[in-house]
Amino acid sequence: MAAHLIVLFLFSVLKGVHSITIVSKVSVKAGKSISIPCLYHYQYTDHVKYLCKGYFWTSCRHAVKTNEPDPSGKYLISDDKKQQIFTVTVNHLTNQNTHYWCVVEINNGPDHGQYFQLLVTNGTPSLYVDHQMITGYIGENITIRCHHSNSGEMKWCRLDRNCVTGSPGSIDGTTVTAHMSEPNVFTVTMSGLKSENSGWYWCAEGDIQIPVYLTVTENTTTTPTTISITSHAVAGNGKFTTMEQWNNFTIVENKQHRASSFPPKILIIPLSVLIVIVIVVLFIWFILRHIEQSKAESSATAMVGEEVTYSEVRTKKKCSPKAGDKVTYSEVRPKKKRLPKAEGKETEVTYSVLANLY
After folding, report:
1. Which of 26, 2, 28, 35 is nearest to 235 (CA)?
2. What is the per-residue DSSP string for 56-69?
3. pLDDT band at 138, cuts 50/70/90?
4. Which among 35, 287, 311, 343 would be 20 to 30 A from 15, CA to CA?
5. CB neighbours (10 Å) of residue 315?
6. Is the CB of residue 217 less than 8 Å from the CB of residue 135?
7. In this predicted model, what pLDDT tens digit does every residue of 229-284 receive, in sequence order?
8. 186: closest CA among 236, 126, 137?
9. Helices (H) and strands (E) in the chain, counts
10. 3-state class (DSSP) for residue 303
11. What's the distance, Cα to Cα, between the start and end of the chain in Å?
């Protein structure tokens, strides 16, 4: 009976091994984060998936489930049912975060799990890429640089598909060239990208792999045909820790680009209306100013043409002559006599005749 149970247990484990495909060893730096893809059979699409922590299958404990998120944020999990891949992410890695299992929960039976190991180091990892999450554009090229420190065969593979080594090859109908561009750098170029090229890949050196997720989308910008990926958010930098977060970022980024690239013709009508309004206002202001200036000039002219004569009237007392005083009376008769004109003007002279009266 015991032997029968052991055989059944081994059969379940072997069945679980073939039901899930993942990487086996991943080198990563302490304090960073890493995302691991777990490919499962289509018959487990609606099953619960989880990450199990521990070296032994029989004693590992649940870290996070698709139906039970980790409240601490240490572990994340997402399930892409279309591609039959669930992705687990471990944040803030330490030397104690090394042994894990990708597991599919089986109802009324033993769960199916696949083991992987994280090689956590305080220094530079033995195999790493510039960015774990990258984006390419349909019809264009993309280049991935795999940095390694050990000597071994380098290859570029798609999860559960074929691999390309040093010679040119093809993955899903896309041309792939891989070569050592410089010491300890394995350069991979994928040409003529298609939407079906989106998915998980890995760069491998011996038995160590580093997963890379490629998103292929439409190019809405005027970038060159060949793209060398040098800066994208990585799950390891704490910004994007799941595929869902990465895809949401890509959607928002595309929406912002479309919003900022509106056609300039939209501005023509508002600008034309504004120009017409400015011209009308200036015309009215010019007319009103001209009218005010005309009124001011007319008033000044009227004031200049008028001649004003001022006269001063003073009263003078008349004194009666005293007795015995000798009085001389005179009669003044005006007599006009014209003299020669002086400087073109006539001068009026008044003469008087004095007569002594006794």
Report:
1. 35
2. STTT-EEEEETTB-
3. very high
4. 35
5. 4
6. yes
7. 433 333 444 444 445 554 454 444 444 444 444 456 667 888 888 898 999 999 89
8. 126
9. 3, 24
10. helix
11. 187
Structure tokens at 63: 């870290």
Tell which residue, 160, 159, 58, has the closest CA to residue 103: 58
Q: Is 188 helix (H, G, I), strand (E, B) or coil?
A: strand
Sequence letter at residue 258: R
Interacting residues of 189 by C-beta distance below 8 A, sequence separation 6+:
141, 142, 143, 144, 176, 177, 178
The CA distance from 227 to 241, in Å, is 24
Q: How far apart are CA 218 and CA 84, in angstroms?
A: 24
pLDDT tens-digit series, residues 220-233: 875 554 444 433 33
Six token digits for residue 152:
């071994």
Nearest residue to 136 (alpha-carbon basis) of 210, 218, 202: 218
- Go through the chain and tell me how many residues it has: 358
Answer yes or no: is pLDDT of 64 > 80: yes
Eight-state DSSP code of residue 318: P
Query: Which run of H or of E encompasses 249?
Result: helix 243-260
- Residue 54, classed as helix, strand or coil, is coil
3-state secondary structure of 157: strand
> What Cα–Cα distance (Å) separates residue 54 from each residue in 95, 273, 306, 347?
13, 71, 116, 136
What the block records as the tokens of 201 is 């890949």
Average pLDDT of the chain, as a whole number: 77
Strands 20-21 vs 99-104: parallel, antiparallel or unpaired: unpaired
**Bridging pattern class, strands 199-205 and 75-80:** unpaired
d(CA 258, CA 68): 37
Binning pLDDT at 50, 70 and 90, where does residue 70 land?
very high
Token pair of 211 as six digits: 């997963």
